[in-house]
Amino acid sequence: MIDFLRGPVVHLENEYIVLDVQGVGYRVFCPNPFVFAKADGPVTVYTHHHVREDAILLFGFPTREEQQLFRKLIDVSGIGPKVALGILGGGTPDHVVTAIYQENITFLTKLPGIGKKTAQRMILDLKDKLDGFGTAAMATGLFAVPEPVEGDGSAWSEAREGLKALGYTDVELDRVWHKIKDDTAFGDSVDILMKRALKQLYAG
User: Fold this and answer.
1) DSSP string spanning 103-165?
2) Going by DSSP bridges, is the β-strand pair 55-61/9-12 parallel, antiparallel, or unpaired?
3) What DSSP designation does 14 have?
4) Does the domain made of 4-61 have the CATH classification 2.40.50.140?
5) Domain 65-139, what architecture?
6) How far apart are CA 139 and CA 131, in angstroms?
7) Where in the chain are the domains?
8) What gap in Å lies between CA 193 and CA 177, rounded to an integer?
9) Among 57, 77, 81, 171, which is 20 to 30 Å from 24 by CA?
10) What Rg, from alpha-carbon coordinates, does the chain have?
11) Angle separating helix axes 93-101 and 64-73, nearest 10 degrees
12) Where is the Helix-hairpin-helix DNA-binding motif class domain (predicted)?
C-alpha cells in the first residue's frame, strides 16, 4: 500500500493533482486539490491506495488526520471513496468528528452526498471509533460545529484567514471575494469557500 508520496505538483485539476515522484507522475484525487496550488517545491501527500475490479486509484490528503478519517468514513456502509472525499471537502475533520459525537444530523446532511439515513449510519458506526480525532478539544470546548452563515460573514472571515496562512495577500483575497461572493449561498462551509476561492486564485 502507498501511504504517502512526496514530490512537486506538476498538474492540477478540479478533482486531482499530478505529483512527480522521481520522474513518475501519480494522479491523486483530493478533497480540495487547490490547497496544493501555492506550493513552490515538493509537497507531502498522505494517500489511500484504493483497488477495485476496474481501477486502481490514489486518494490524497495534506494531513495524516484527513487520511485516517477518510479510511474511517469508507468503512461505513453506503459511503464510497467519492462520497468520503466530498465529506472532507465540505467540512474539516474536527467539524465532521464533532458532528458525529454530537449526533448533529443537521450538519451531517449538509455535507455532499449525505442523506439522513447515511448520517445516522455514520453516527452509529463511527461514534465509538474516533478516539484521537479531536476528542480532547471537544472535551474542553475548544471548538464546535459551525452554524451556517450568509454573505461575507464569519465563514468567509475564517476562510480568508486560512488563505492568508497559505501566503495569499489581502489584495488577492479582496479581488477573489468580489468574484465568488455572488455564488456564495447560505450554509456554505469554510472549506467550500476556500476551495472556491483557491480555484479562482489558481486560475488568475
Assistant:
1) T-HHHHTTSTT--HHHHHHHHHHHTTS-TTSSHHHHHTT---PPPP--TTSHHHHHHHHHHHH
2) unpaired
3) S
4) yes
5) Orthogonal Bundle (1.10)
6) 12
7) 4-61, 65-139, 154-203
8) 9
9) 81
10) 17
11) 40
12) 71-90, 106-125
Closest residue by Cα to residue 82 from 35, 114, 104, 45: 114
Instruction: Give residue-wise pLDDT tens across range 167-180.
Output: 788 778 888 888 88
Cell digits of residue 157: 472571515
Cell numbers describing residue 56: 486502481
Q: Find out whether 100 and 127 touch, Cβ atoms under 8 Å.
A: yes
Q: Which three cell numbers stand for residue 46?
A: 498522505
Residue with cell 474516533: 130
Contacts of 86 (CB under 8 A, 6+ apart): 31, 111, 112, 113
Confidence of residue 186 (pLDDT cuts 50, 70, 90): low
Whole-angstrom distance, CA of residue 142 vs CA of residue 155 = 17
- 42 grid coordinates: 515538493
CB distance 111 to 73 below 8 Å: no
Two domains, one topology: 4-61 and 65-139: no
Question: 0.85 exceeded by the pTM?
Answer: no
